[in-house]
Amino acid sequence: MKKMYAAFLAVLICMLCACTAKPAEEKGEFVLATTAPVAEIASRLLDGTDIETQQLITESVSCLHDYSLSVEQMKKAESCSLVIISGLGLEDFMESVLAKCPDCITASSDISPLPGEDGSDPHVWMAPENMESMVKTVSSALQGRYPDAAQAICANEAAYCKELDALNTYGKEQLAQLSCRKLVTFHDGFSYFASAFDLEIAAAMELEPGSEPSAKELEAIISIVEENGIPAVFVEANGLSDASSIISDETGAKVFTLNMAMDLGNDRYFDVMKRNIDTIKEALG
Questions:
Q1: Which of 6, 100, 183, 224 has the greatest CB tally within 10 Å of its CB?
Q2: What's 162-199 look like in SS3?
Q3: What is this structure's pTM?
């Protein structure tokens, strides 16, 4: 009797294990995306699946040059099985942590970068066409990793790319007839945006947190604004600078705010970028 009971119990345990065993994507598995742009890509592509997207850096930041992960963030990054990064040096500050992750998708791997101050400019998502390339790169990688969700991911990719195509067309149409095509910015992350919509970066100043440009630097920007008749200068939403007010006072140029889309909040990338386009049209139209 004891042997029969033991055998029955063993069969019952096996049956329960078989019933509860699920593919990885059905166990509540999550992918970790470093910043808002790639987090939106992942969440849009995985919509309708059982795979969750979590965003590692959620603070309002304009750049990651001096960013440091908290202990909690490091634990999350080291415990995940898949991380999606933007790439091109944006996440260099967490290189040692990424080295411990079993799988990493670099969203910008198929994009030819523009030169930046210390190498390649990592702000590639600021051009809708680049964002679309990132979507396709991440989609392909996710379909390979989660074959059971591939059909949903593919459909989501098509819908998202259609939206990005519409955004790109909107930008080109709205910014086609500007009276001035020169941008003066207090962040060096708008080169891809300018290239996408045939604008020119007349001056771009990357300031360390809490610092302001020197008098010589201010004089140089004031000269550029005056000599080119530039009607506006642009500050980044999370990196406001007192220097912009000085330039405005000296030249009469108005100050407008653009968003680097590093912090989307409750907005979509589409909405943030559309506001950027509308702002530039208002400022330089």
A1: 183
A2: HHHHHHHHHHHHHCCCCCCCEEEECCCCCHHHHHHCCC
A3: 0.86
